[in-house]
Amino acid sequence: MKIQTEIVVTLNKVLTSELTSINQFFLHARIYKNWGFSQLNDKCYKKSILDMKQADKLIERILFLEGLPNLQQLGQLSIGEETPEMLDCDHQFELNQRKVLQQAIATCEQLQDFVSRDLLTQILDDEEEYIDWIETQHYQIEQMGLEKYLQAQL
Questions:
Q1: Which residue stretches of 36-113 are H helix?
Q2: Beta-carbon contacts of residue 5 (< 8 Å; ≥ 6 apart)
Q3: Do 47 and 25 touch, CB atoms closer than 8 A?
Q4: Quick check: helix, strand or coil at residue 3?
Q5: Average pLDDT over residues 37-59
Q6: Angle, to 10 degrees, between the axis of helix 114-144 and the axis of helix 38-64?
């Protein structure tokens, strides 16, 4: 099935964001694991795997539309050096990714590609759930203090 080039370009923008996300969250997971924070490691690792599955769905959709998935382009990673900074980097990344997804969804609706829109909406739901999780972590740090929060992550 061949569809508008603008849809393929739009899906590739989202794919770039997902590929970047995989790397950022995977590295943060491994940093947390190295520090012994198993709960943070598990959450970030599962996020990177989810992003990999989302990237796979985007690749399949682009190929179905007879486009070429761009796996060579990555955005800039934001890697923190301590837990609050890592959470901040991930939060900002997710907020930016949400904007990319919202714009992509609007483009798909405008061009009446509702299958791609539905795929992007599912991804957006997952990203918003993760944004909520990060904001909860910030709240817990504020309420508990960093030391107690980190103890709870062991």
A1: 38-64, 83-110
A2: 67
A3: yes
A4: coil
A5: 98
A6: 170
Greatest Cα pair distance, the chain, in angstroms, is 55
Residue 3 has pLDDT above 70, yes or no: no
DSSP state of 81: S
Q: Cβ–Cβ contacts within 10 Å for residue 5, how many?
A: 10
CB contact at 8 A, 153 and 37? yes
Output DSSP code: residue 72: S
The number of angstroms, rounded, from the C-alpha of 70 to the middle of its chain's C-alpha atoms is 17
Q: What is the mean pLDDT of residues 10-24?
A: 98
Contact, 124 vs 102, CB < 8 A?
yes
Q: Are 133 and 17 in contact (CB under 8 A)?
A: no
d(CA 141, CA 79): 19
CA 152 vs CA 19, 45, 71, 74, 138: distances in Å: 30, 18, 38, 34, 14
Crossing angle (nearest 10°) for helices 83-110 and 114-144:
160
Backbone φ and ψ of 136, nearest 5°: -65, -40
Secondary structure (H, E, C), 34-50? HHCCHHHHHHHHHHHHH
